[in-house]
Amino acid sequence: MGEKTKEIRILRIHLEEDAGKSIHDEDYVESDATLIDLNRCGTPLIEIVSKPDFRSANEATDYLTKLRQLVRYLNICDGNMEQGSLRCDANVSVRQKKDSKLGEKTELKNMNSIRNVEKAIDFEIGRQIKVIESGAKVKQQTLLWDADKKKTKLMRSKEEAHDYRYFPEPDLAPVEIKQNWIKKIKSEMPELPNKKFSRFIADYKLSQYETKILTADIDFAEYFEKTLKIVSDPKLVAKWMLGEVLRILNDKKLKISDFTILPEKLANLLKMIKNNVIGESAAKKVFEQMLDSSDDVAVIIKKMNLVQVSDKEFIERLIDNVLTKYSKEVELYKSGKTKLFGFFMGQLMKESGGKANPKVVSDQLRKKLAH
Q1: Does residue 170 sit within a domain?
Q2: How many domains does the chain have?
Q3: Could you give the CA distance from residue 85 to residue 108 in angstroms, rounded to a whole number?
């Protein structure tokens, strides 16, 4: 998505029924025991088997992140690894540069987050390298990842493919997929992540960094576009979405669907900024109140007495007071230390309680300092 891309081939995708899971966690069971959890038994699942095209843990987690984003966009899975909605097993092998054949592989299980997938793969790569450098051979095994100890432990010796005993199910009739059905499904699919990413950059002139975050989650992207329908300023909306909105979501561990400020209310706040009713610093104070208030934006602004002041006479008196108070800094500014302009702006906004119109203040201040 605007960055370096790599093709990862898919060997097969097949449908299964969840058979439940084994629990080997020592916090729950004795070291020589295993618990069987059948809560999800019979639940339909899709298994995607990828070819060995990854060359690092980072590539594997990028691919997994992309798959999770895709199933969320398609609304077929919430992609929550912690709750088991999305799972990942990783086959890991290493080889020396001079070798063309892949080395013996191990399979990693029990990874309940994308971060743990990355840690487990990195650990296993390092472990296999140490085994080979010691003169020993890597054994084909299934390993469990211990997130607390940050290392793997043996689960069982790895079966060969024929040990899985794949065989046809006589009660399941073959499914013939017709091209018309495929076309119908394609026509009903939502806009997918890559297309949305390209459209956001083309239509809204946003940076790749901004667009990557805005389109990472479909609900977040939709919130952005709903806000944009009311206040037509992509840069301003993106700035607030990636700043204040994302800060609250991260602090409170919320999804955008649980956010108390609806797109319409955020848009009304941003319109107040565009129309110079309030400045951005005052808007942040209003935003904090909006989190716990059902009042309209205009009502909150009035209650907090934050209406922006653009009266030039008032602002001129304010500037005179500040420049008199910081006369030494004025001399330094006039001697060439023009970076002090930001200092004066800060003091003026502080003196006005954030209510003075920044543009009017800036224009008036430059005129004063030029004399």
Answers
A1: no
A2: 3
A3: 18
